[in-house]
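Review session, final week

We close the course with one last complete record, chosen because it touches almost every idea we covered. It is Transthyretin protein 5, a protein from Trichostrongylus colubriformis with 142 residues. Go through it on your own first, then we will talk.
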Amino acid sequence: MRLLLAFIVPLGVIGVDILPQIRTVQSTAVQGKLLCNGAPYEKARLKLYEVDPLIDTLMDEALSDKNGQFLLKGNDTEWSKIDPKLNIYHNCEDEKVECWRKVEIRIPDSFVTDGPEPAKIFDIGTLNLNAKLPGETRDCLN
């Protein structure tokens, strides 16, 4: 038993020292253009997250510009491949309702890059926010 403990304890200590080095920095980027009633939608709230089991990690946030365009990029250090998503918060055709409409778009794994700077940008294209999109919800806290 002592021999077994003498072998296991040092491995545990070594393992604790090695584990942080196994984590890797990964990055992603997303861009697009938002419309409401055919016109550019300015000041939509955009947040780029890394999905985690308990609390998602915010990697970047911005507002769409006067042309409805946006670009977000960010990175996170994880044990496994990051799982990024873009949340879009807006009130297109819904200005009188207190809570924002929320659209969630998952970013494909092929747009995740090893390292702190993304090598590729996921382009969602032009998104018409008038449409009731699949999975759309309401968010009063964003």
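Two points worth writing down before the exam:
The longest strand covers residues 24-36.
Confidence is low (pLDDT under 50) at residues 3-18.
Good luck, everyone.
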